[in-house]
Design a protein that fits this description.
Elements (H helix, E strand, L loop, with lengths): L3 H19 L6 H28 L3 H28 L8 H30 L7
């Protein structure tokens, strides 16, 4: 079984990889598919990590961050499916540029939350904090 802290950090790096994939100058259909696949991996990791953090007895704040990250990942997939339909399936989606901006904002929130959670959980697990 993989340690929770490793999966938390994996989610951060996969989210980072998603940014890298999306900004490649010669953006292709294959990259859209890879981006979508990575999105589903992040969704799974976000919910699995949330479950693992809850089971660990970590402080409530970490549980709230894990839950928020899972909710953001779920919203992200919904928006991603809409954008995927627009890009890959040729469906005309109204307000696609606005949806893209919201998708980007949520992606930034996910990587921020995931980074915060990974670091805080790791520090909690290793008892690398000072209490008053």
């Amino acid at each position: 079984m993989v340690d929770t802290w490793k999966l938390l950090y994996a989610m951060v790096w996969i989210a980072f990889l998603q940014f890298v994939v999306i900004i490649i100058p010669r953006f292709t259909v294959g990259l859209v598919d890879l981006h979508a696949l990575l999105g589903f991996i992040i969704l799974g990791l976000a919910h699995y990590n949330c479950m693992q953090v809850r089971r660990s007895g970590a402080p409530n704040r970490l549980m709230r961050i894990a839950k928020a990250t899972g909710l953001l990942a779920t919203a992200q997939i919904v928006l991603g499916i809409v954008l995927f339909a627009n890009l890959r399936l040729g469906m005309t989606v109204p307000f696609s540029q606005a949806i893209t901006i919201v998708h980007l904002i949520i992606a930034l929130a996910i990587i921020t939350q995931a980074s915060s959670l990974a670091t805080a959980y790791d520090m909690w697990k290793e008892r690398e904090f000072v209490t008053k």
